[in-house]
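Dear colleague,

Thank you for sharing your sequence with our group. We've completed the structure prediction you requested, and as agreed, I am returning the results in plain text so they can be pasted directly into your records. Please verify that the sequence below matches your submission; if there's any discrepancy, let me know and we will rerun it promptly.
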Amino acid sequence: MTFAQTVRDIVRRHGGLPTRLLQILREVQDHLTWLPSEALEQVAEELGLSSDKVRGVAEFYSFLYTDPRGCYDILFSDNITDRMLGNRELLHYLCERFGIGIGETRADEVVSVGTTSCTGMCDQGPAALVNGYTLTRLDRPRLDRIVELVNGRIPLEQWPREFFEVISNIRRADVLLGRHFADGAALRAVLQRGPEAMLDELVKSGLRGQGGAGYRSAAKWISCRNAPGEVKYVVCNADEGEPGTFKDRVLMQDFADLVFEGMTLCGWVIGARQGFVYLRGEYRYLLKALRETLQRRRETGLLGEAILGDPSFNFEIDIHLGAGAYVCGEESALIESLEGKHGVPRIRPPFPTTHGYLNRPTVVNNVETFAAAAKIAVEGGDWFASRGTAESKGTKLLSLSGDCERPGIYEYPFGVTVQRVLEDCGARDAQGIQMAGPAGHTVSAKQFGRRICFEDLATGGSFMVFDRSRDILDGIRNFTQFFVH
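Please find the predicted structure tokens below.
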């Protein structure tokens, strides 16, 4: 197949839709390893867009390349927690083995090595990506084997599976992670109750957005439901780019049905027929399993046309893969990216609930929020509100990493103290905690009695521990480099 035919077929598979531009560029790059000018120009021609617009989108996202890269493109995760685990020494070692510098492509264009920001594997680092797929628990013997595989031009499909193993590391479970959920239970419950009664339960639950902002979920759904317009959308923000956060990764890996069920019932409540999951590019390894889960739900009557036999209940979900733009975690920037544009935040108002995707009313919620909504549909709002604090109902998933014996995912009722979390994860002699990512809260040892809740320490889920052996300035420098990126 010729170069031109390959690009043409990719565009056609995506319906020739400009909104699919980012997905098209990703797929073209998968075939070519980078995006030469001829490819960008042909994509522009096929979509009826200007070459400048297509090039601008390609240059906006850090995982799209307009310069040649190696057939094996290796990017080391460079979050502070990876540095604590020795990633810099390993990075230099691998570059030395390949005979190149950091950020360089070898002359034969077989391999390139560089860095990227947090890949969401802080509990099992040092981590890296190879052609977008996750590598975990790197050490010198593993890197030596990778050098052999790359120099031997061995396809990734034939690499040892343990190199790509991602474990969930759920250390403490509560109502979200610890209670059995039967597929379809939330949808049956909402069909029995009706949309208005479901909204009443959501109001009673006190559920707030779990991505960090904490906006009341019921208010967002009600606003979208009441907005004029026949066409509405549901968007799941799975672009958790805040360094040190990986709880949505675990939900999408182990509890995808729960998340999809929450999205589907949201569609029923607000009157939407289409949903999107915006999955961060670093979680590409999840894509195949997530698509298989969606297909299984279609085959069992939990997604698609006439859900659970109700001819009026129609809802579909598509997955959109991001490409390494941290700003797309902001809901309006995410929507811009979903439309095939630069992921630049919009001026608000208007807000997405009235003018969202394609300028239609849209609910954008975090992965954890949709999962909680599905549980609330089954158990009721009062059940959920019985946990937590006055202004922070329910539970919160925390991503623990750094200087602790048991990194991983911990679910607590809102209001838990920092000290309790440190004891549970085996953090000894901690001098401080960085919560909610680089732009969040730095909590000193004198403040470990503070509570994790919207009234005190709000967080999207990141909880990085620094013991007294660490120079806190190293963390600050790493965070500064992240924001420069």
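Summary note from our side: The chain has a mean pLDDT of 96.

Kind regards,
the structure core
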